[in-house]
Amino acid sequence: MLVVLLDGAPLDDADARDVWSRFSRHMDENPGDLAGFAKDEGLFAVRPEHQRGQAVLLAFTTEEAERAAPRTPKIPAPAPTPKPNGAARGGKPAPVPVKGRRP
Questions:
Q1: What are phi and psi of 9, to 5 degrees?
Q2: Closest Cα to residue 13, out of 25, 21, 1?
Q3: How many Cβ atoms are within 10 Å of 37's Cβ, its own excluded?
Q4: Is 84 a domain residue?
Q5: Which residues of the chain fall below pLDDT 70?
Q6: If you average pLDDT over every residue of the chain, what do you get?
Q7: Under DSSP, is residue 66 helix (H, G, I), strand (E, B) or coil?
Q8: What is the pLDDT of residue 101?
Q9: Tens digits of per-residue pLDDT, 31-60?
Q10: Domain annotation covers residue 94
Q11: Given 16, 47, 54, 95, which residue has the most CB atoms within 10 angstroms?
Q12: Which helix (H) or strand (E) holds 19?
């Protein structure tokens, strides 16, 4: 999964893929030219990072936005996955009835 945070807000998946595609093409043609890519995109600055096993491109529209951002803005954590049989409520899973036996 490729992530783009624009002034700290995540872009949707399709837009993020498009930005990453342009970023990769630009970097292949102009190694290390982050400022050139930002300028071409109408941005103040960009910087790639790796967070939680994912590629993240931080993009800023203004100097103020870049200054206001934490040095390493974090991508939003995924929503927790519900656990089966009520375990998410902190209790034990419900007993499974067995034919011929009482719980």
A1: -100, 130
A2: 1
A3: 21
A4: no
A5: 71-103
A6: 83
A7: helix
A8: 59
A9: 999 999 999 999 999 999 988 888 899 999
A10: no
A11: 16
A12: helix 13-29
Which residue reads 């009520």 in tokens?
A: 86
Say how many domains are in the chain: 1
Domain encompassing residue 53: 2-75
Tell me the C-alpha distance between 2 and 55, whole Å: 5
What residue type is 16 in one-letter code?
A
The amino acid at residue 22 is R
What is the DSSP code string of 22-36?
A: HHHHHHHHSTT-HHH
Handedness of CA 21, 26, 28, 31 (dihedral sign): negative
Measured CA to CA, the distance from residue 37 to residue 2 in angstroms comes to 17
Residue 64 in tokens: 């103020």
Report yes or no on 13 lying in a domain: yes
Residue 28 is assigned to a structural domain of this protein = yes
